[in-house]
Structure formats: structure tokens, C-alpha cells
TrEMBL record:
Record keywords, A-Z: Glycoprotein, Membrane, Transmembrane, Transmembrane helix
Pfam families: Tmemb_161AB
Primary localisation category: membrane
Domain of life: Eukaryota
Protein name: Uncharacterized protein
TM regions (residue ranges): 6-29, 62-87, 156-178
Membrane topology: Multi-pass membrane protein
Residues forming coiled coils: none
Compartments, as annotated in UniProt: Membrane
Xref: InterPro entries: Transmembrane_161A/B (IPR019395)
């Protein structure tokens, strides 16, 4: 298995888990909304009287935070999906590596253009017209593109994607441990 194929397999797995989580979102949100029903059931077992206002407040709290719960569920999924797609695109990876087809560089028909040497590029203050200033800025951007190569993006987005997926997993694990430990059984 090549390095490119390994990266594409990781991206496909992240996308599959992300789409699975988005598909499971209605069930997750319904389980959150069931907390209101569980609170009423617990309230029925308690002795004493409670006013309608207090009961409504107890139930309304669950529904007020539905948007927050949805955001906490969806935001990490979307972040991981977008970071993995940026890792694929800016890292120069191809879906062809997933099916075993190696994509050669320059296959898209684009060829790298050679820029002027740095010594002959005038500064922006020396520009006498808008066209010269535009040329200077575009040459500066071309030099900047030489720094931000696909290897740079692979490193940055590979680490960022790994870190987001790891944080997502650890926070989910702590959430499950917390709920299983502190849930009244």
C-alpha cells in the first residue's frame, strides 16, 4: 500500500463515518428530546407537589438547548469532513489512488511556469503604472506559491485532520464514560 493510497483510505473512512453520523443525527436528537419525558417520569415518582410553571420550566430547558446540542453534534463532523477534503485537494491526492490508478503529475495539462529571477523584480514602490504593480503583485504571489507546495499542505492538513479526529474521538469517549458513570441506573 502506497502512502497516497493510505491517505485516501483514511479520507474515505473519515467521510464514511461523518456521513454515518449525519445520517444518525435524527435518532441522536430524538434521544436528547426524550430527556424531557424522562424528567417527567422521575417527577411522577417523587413525593410532593410541583406547580405547573416549575414543570414547564423543567421541560422547556430541554427544548431551549436543542440548537446547542445540534451544533455540538454537527460541528465536529463538518469540520472533520472539510479538513479531510482540503487535505485531499490541496495535498495533491487523487481518488485514483483509492482504486489503484496512479495519477501522473502534469496529467491535467497544466505545466509549471517559470518566473523571473528575484533580482530583476522591482519593488511595489517603484511601479509607475497599475499594470506594473499588478505584475509585481502576481510575481510575488507566484513566489509565495513556491513556498506553499503540496508537501506543505499535506503536512499541515494531515496533522490538522488527525488532531480534529483524535479530539472528536477523545471527547466522545469522555462523554460516554461520563454518562455511563453518572447515569442513575
Amino acid at each position: 500500500m502506497t502512502s497516497d493510497m493510505f491517505d485516501i483510505v483514511r479520507i474515505v473512512l473519515i467521510l464514511a463515518v461523518g456521513l454515518l453520523r449525519i445520517g444518525m443525527m435524527p435518532y441522536y436528537l430524538q434521544s436528547y428530546l426524550n430527556i424531557a419525558y424522562e424528567k417527567i417520569e422521575i417527577q411522577k415518582k417523587e413525593s410532593g407537589r410541583i406547580t405547573n410553571k416549575e414543570l414547564q420550566k423543567k421541560i422547556a430547558r430541554v427544548f431551549y438547548y436543542l440548537c446547542v446540542v445540534t451544533l455540538q453534534y454537527v460541528a465536529p463532523v463538518i469540520l472533520c469532513i472539510f479538513l479531510s477534503l482540503m487535505f485531499k485537494t490541496l495535498g495533491g491526492l487523487s481518488w485514483g489512488a483509492f482504486i489503484g490508478r496512479v495519477v501522473e503529475e502534469g496529467e491535467c495539462g497544466l505545466s509549471p511556469e517559470g518566473g523571473e529571477p528575484m533580482a530583476t523584480i522591482p519593488t511595489l514602490q517603484e511601479a509607475e503604472s497599475v499594470l506594473e504593480a499588478t505584475k509585481i503583485v502576481s510575481l510575488g504571489m507566484d513566489e509565495l506559491k513556491k513556498v506553499f507546495t503540496t508537501e506543505f499542505y499535506r503536512g499541515v492538513f494531515g496533522f490538522t485532520t488527525w488532531w480534529c479526529v483524535f479530539s472528536w474521538f477523545v471527547s466522545g469517549t469522555f462523554g460516554v464514560a461520563y454518562q455511563s458513570y453518572f447515569t442513575k441506573g
